[in-house]
Structure formats: structure tokens, C-alpha cells
Amino acid sequence: MSEKMVAIMKTKPEYGAELVEVDVPKPGPGEVLIKVLATSICGTDLHIYEWNEWAQSRIKPPQIMGHEVAGEVVEVGPGVEGIEVGDYVSAETHIVCGKCYACRRGQYHVCQNTKIFGVDTDGVFAEYAIIPAQNVWKNPKSIPPEYATLQEPLGNAVDTVLAGPIAGKSVLITGAGPLGLLGIAVAKASGAYPVIVSEPSEFRRNLAKKVGADYVINPFEEDVVKEVMDITDGNGVDVFLEFSGAPKALEQGLQAVTPAGRVSLLGLFPGKVSIDFNNLIIFKALTVYGITGRHLWETWYTVSRLLQSGKLNIDPIITHKYKGFDKYEEAFELMRAGKTGKVVFMLK
Ligand SMILES: NC(=O)C1=CN([C@@H]2O[C@H](COP(=O)(O)OP(=O)(O)OC[C@H]3O[C@@H](n4cnc5c(N)ncnc54)[C@H](O)[C@@H]3O)[C@@H](O)[C@H]2O)C=CC1
Ligand SMILES: CC(=O)[C@H](N)C(=O)O
Ligand SMILES: [Zn+2]
Ligand SMILES: [Zn+2]
Asked: Does the keyword Membrane apply (predicted)?
């Protein structure tokens, strides 16, 4: 193994990133070193690349980017047990403390001391990467690296879709970005029908149909609520899954969900949102879930088994696969333009 490696690094507190050559890191106590086989871009990486307000408040350059990964363990640090050189792994991004009130209640996804690797530490957009041993997830060889790297965002989609009963339920999904597209795949694999998707981008509405959406709506040109009512004989949908972070979509979904229906909210809104709570939530007796991260480790088992079942139609979602990191600027610009589903860097 060479002592140097290539990495995509946020080198400066400004727009963009650089492809740099750095030392291959050594795993410390409780850490493993992996050779990266595949890694994929998350919307959060785009925020860091664009250097938006949130990124400026959280990221401390210089720092290697990226947090979605599949790789092979090449070195194990002192004190690590149960992980061997050669293991094929992915990683949970939330580094949790195990000591806080949330962790002690088993609610690790809302650990009050969460650190996120690739956000608060060096990440995985590199030939090799350090992963805390407590965050390592072992993959079966049957899951190819380009799927295995998507397990982390698939976990967000699984927690959103499967927060309540879904088989045989009518569903509205607002937002068919990478996460909404994964949500469509999970909903269809889980027996939902019809799955109605509201998405302003034609490119992404077409992707939604390829993934299995039964109906697609352009919210900028059609009346979402009317379309949903027409499709559901005036009843509304049983389940509303919000993946856009658009306040208008939230309001439309709350109007379109049937009384006593279920709502899962994953999308992050640009700021405070004004909602008619009395008429859209309380008098409709809705069950509303806030979704963040992944339940550890239950969600990872669900994601892995869904992938192994072969029922998740995620091939159309992987719209761009790059060999190595050389075209990383093109990848980020295409993502920024909304012209992608998931973008994967293959390093095998
Ligand atoms: N809660 C959590 O743990 C996490 C939340 N997120 C959030 O989930 C959301 C989805 O993530 P990505 O797919 O990566 O985001 P994205 O920004 O790529 O996709 C959002 C989609 O919503 C669409 N959209 C915009 N306005 C709309 C409207 N009025 N109606 C319907 N669709 C509309 C956009 O065209 C876009 O395709 C984002 O807000 C992201 O910040 C992402 C990761 C974790
Ligand atoms: C911050 C992230 O983007 C990450 N995917 C998460 O689930 O927290
Ligand atoms: Zn992410
Ligand atoms: Zn904790």
C-alpha cells in the first residue's frame, strides 16, 4: 500500500474543493483503515462544496469530504475487536456517545453528542479512510459496492417510509431528489399502491417513473391536492412522505393526506415554516413523525435485507458512476443543476 493517497478535500472556506495528494492515515485506538471501493455524494456534501451558511457554521477546512462509502478493511487499530483485515464494510455516519440520555434509552439516532464523519472529521472521498470501529457495518459479498455505498441514505429513506404500516397503503411522496427516489423504491418494494410523486423537475419525474412511481405530478403546473383526490376517489392518501424541504409541499401533503393518516417528515426546510396546525394536523388527527439519521442498528439490517431481496429498483437512481475522482467538479456541478440521481465514485 503506498504511503500517499488522492482525496477530494475542502481546502479553503470558499466555493469548491480540490483533488489533493495526502498521506495515507494510520488507524488509532478504536479505528480501522479501509480501502475505499465506492463512495457517493450526499446533498450535505453539496452544501459543503457550495459552502452555504450551514457549511460555514459547521465545517473546519482543510478536511476530506464525503460520508457514504463501501470499502475493505486494510488495517485495524489497537483495541479493535471483531473486525478483520479483508472485511467488506460500509459505515454509519453518526458517531454517537453511548452515554447521553438518548443513547442510554437506545435512541442512538438522536444522540445528544453526535459527531458526523465527513462533516466533523475527515471523510471518505479518498483512496483510504479512517472509520471508527463502532461505526463499521459488515456487508455480505452479494451486495455490490455501488449499492453498498447507498445504504446510509437508504437508511434515511427506510426510516421515513417504514415509520408506520406501508403495505397496501396509498402514498404521496413530495420531492424526488436522491432521497425521495430511494423512498419510492422502498415504498414500492414494500407493497405501497398507488405511489404518487410530486416533483417540479421533469428530469426527476422521469426518474421517479423509472423507479416505479404510479403517478407523477408537476406541483408548479398542476394542483397537487386535486390530483391526489382524483386518484384516491376523494379520500386522500393514507401516508404522506415529505422528501423535499419545500414549505409549499408540506402544506399540500397535509391537505392531501386522509384524516387519521400518517406523515413522515425527512426534508429540511430553509427556515421556520407557518402551518395551519388546527385544521391540517389536529382536527385531522394525523400521526406525524420527524425523521433523522438511522435507527442503530435496526435500520441497517432492514436496508441490507431489502438490498439482498433484489426487490429494490435502485439502478435507475444511480445516474452517474465515475471511475476515480478526476471528474469530481463535473459531478458536483451536475448534482447542483439537479441533473442527477445518486452520483457514485468507483475506486475498485
Ligand atoms: N432528516 C435527515 O436526517 C436528513 C434530511 N435530508 C434532507 O432531505 C431532503 C431530500 O434530500 P435530497 O434528495 O438529497 O435533496 P434534493 O434537494 O436533491 O431533493 C429535493 C427535491 O425536492 C424537489 N422540490 C422542490 N420544491 C418542491 C415542491 N414544492 N414540491 C415537490 N418537490 C419539490 C426538488 O426539485 C428536488 O428534486 C433535503 O431537504 C435534505 O436536506 C437529507 C439527509 C438526512
Ligand atoms: C448529515 C448527513 O448528510 C448524513 N447523511 C446523515 O444522515 O446525517
Ligand atoms: Zn448525507
Ligand atoms: Zn449519545
From this structure: no
pLDDT one-digit tens code per residue, 175-213: 999 999 999 999 999 999 999 999 999 999 999 999 999
What does pLDDT average to over the chain?
97
Instruction: Return the ligand 1 atom nearest residue 174 CA.
Output: 31
| Edge-to-edge strand list for the sheet holding 18-23 | 18-23, 4-10, 63-64
**Annotated catalytic residue 94:** no
CA of 91 to the centre of ligand 2 (A): 12
Q: Over 70: is that where the pLDDT of 1 sits?
A: no
Cell of 212: 416505479
154 lines ligand 2 (CB under 6 A): no
Q: Is the CB of residue 151 below 6 angstroms from any atom belonging to ligand 2? A: no
* Nearest-CA residue for atom 19 of ligand 1: 177
**Alpha helices (runs of H) in the chain, residue ranges in sequence order:** 43-50, 53-58, 101-104, 145-148, 151-161, 178-189, 202-211, 224-231, 247-256, 277, 298-309, 328-336
328 vs 93: CA distance, rounded Å: 21
Q: Ligand 3 (ion): which residues have CB within 5 A?
A: 42, 44
